[in-house]
Each structure stands twice: as structure tokens, then as C-alpha cells.
Design goal:
By secondary structure, this protein is of the alpha/beta class. The protein has a single domain, classed as Rossmann fold. It contains three helices and seven strands. Helix 3 links the parallel strand 4 and strand 5. The two termini are 12 Å apart. It binds adenosine-5'-diphosphate and magnesium ion (MG). The site of magnesium ion has 4 residues, from helix 2.
């Protein structure tokens, strides 16, 4: 499935639509891996996702902290916490040990959204949703491709 968006707001609403499909039936944490160039809209997408599930705090880019987490105010299905990880500076999957990602990926109550997920492919669960972000030709044009297993 590939979406075209022509504004940051449209990108946030695509994220909200995806969030609305969550049913929490899988026994695993929900993991969404995002890839795409700088400025292609990954963080904007996560902001839309967070807002859609009721997180009111402004979602900052975690580039320097690497991972941030937010309680989900009205737990959605069984999900209670959103983790936002930016793997831009990870060169190898082992480096994720510094943020205890493996523990986060073991708890089925977590939603884990990872920017630059391709950098840490080997720690992603097999049922992770993968999304590819691309710039289009126009200033605000972006393409978002969703690959679900
Ligand atoms: N269609 C669009 N979707 C998402 N962001 C857009 C779009 N058009 C313009 N933008 C702008 O592009 C930038 C995307 O930045 P960001 O979401 O931080 O990207 P990334 O996390 O992929 O580096 C923001 O400044 C946003 O306002
Ligand atoms: Mg970003």
C-alpha cells in the first residue's frame, strides 16, 4: 500500500488512520520500522500517530536521547506505552543495547516506532510493519509505502 501526501497534516492523518486499525490481537508488541531520507516525514508521521492515540505531550525527535517513551493515556487495546527510537546513529544492531531495546521489544503492551529501522534490522521482530518514506518532486510531496507481514 502506497500513500501520497502533500502536507505534514496529511501525513499525520495517514498515521492516525493506521493507528485506528490497531486491535491488539497479536501476542507481540506492535513494532513499526520507518526508513527514508532526512525530512521525508518520519517524525511527522510518529507525531500524528501519537496524537491519534491520545498522547498530548509534544513528541520531540529523540535523535540525541535515542529513545523516548510516552504513556498512552487511555490504553488502546492492551497497549499502554509508546516508544520512539531513532536509530540514525546506530551502525550495528548491538549498539541498541545502550537503550535496552530488547526488553522493550519483549513486552506485548508496547508500541515501538523506530526511525532508520534498517540500521538495526536484525533486532526487529519478523512481524514488524515496515514503512518507506520518500520525497516527491514537489516541496511538500511525499510517498509513504506500508509493508505489513
Ligand atoms: N507531506 C509531508 N509530510 C511530512 N512532512 C512534510 C510534508 N510536507 C512538508 N513536510 C515538512 O517536512 C519536514 C519533515 O520532517 P521530519 O518529519 O522531521 O522528517 P524525518 O523524521 O523523516 O527526518 C517537516 O518540516 C514537515 O513540516
Ligand atoms: Mg526524524
Amino acid at each position: 500500500m502506497k500513500y501520497r501526501t502533500d502536507s505534514a497534516e496529511k501525513t499525520r492523518s495517514i498515521a492516525a488512520a493506521l493507528a485506528a486499525t490497531l486491535d491488539g490481537r497479536s501476542p507481540h508488541p506492535l513494532v513499526i520500522g520507518l526508513d527514508g531520507d532526512l525530512g521525508s516525514g518520519k517524525t511527522t508521521f510518529i507525531q500524528g500517530f501519537a496524537r491519534a492515540i491520545g498522547i498530548k505531550r509534544r513528541l520531540l525527535s529523540p535523535t540525541f536521547l535515542l529513545m523516548r517513551s510516552y504513556p498512552i493515556p487511555k490504553p488502546l487495546a492492551r497497549y499502554g506505552r509508546l516508544y520512539h527510537l531513532d536509530a540514525y546513529r546506530f551502525k550495528r544492531a548491538e549498539e541498541t543495547e545502550s537503550v535496552a531495546l530488547k526488553d522493550v521489544l519483549r513486552d506485548p503492551r508496547n508500541i515501538v516506532i523506530i526511525e532508520w529501522a534498517g540500521n538495526i534490522k536484525s533486532v526487529l521482530p519478523r512481524d514488524a510493519i515496515r514503512m518507506k518514506f520518500e520525497h516527491g518532486r514537489h516541496e511538500h510531496e511525499r510517498y509513504i509505502e506500508v509493508k505489513m507481514k
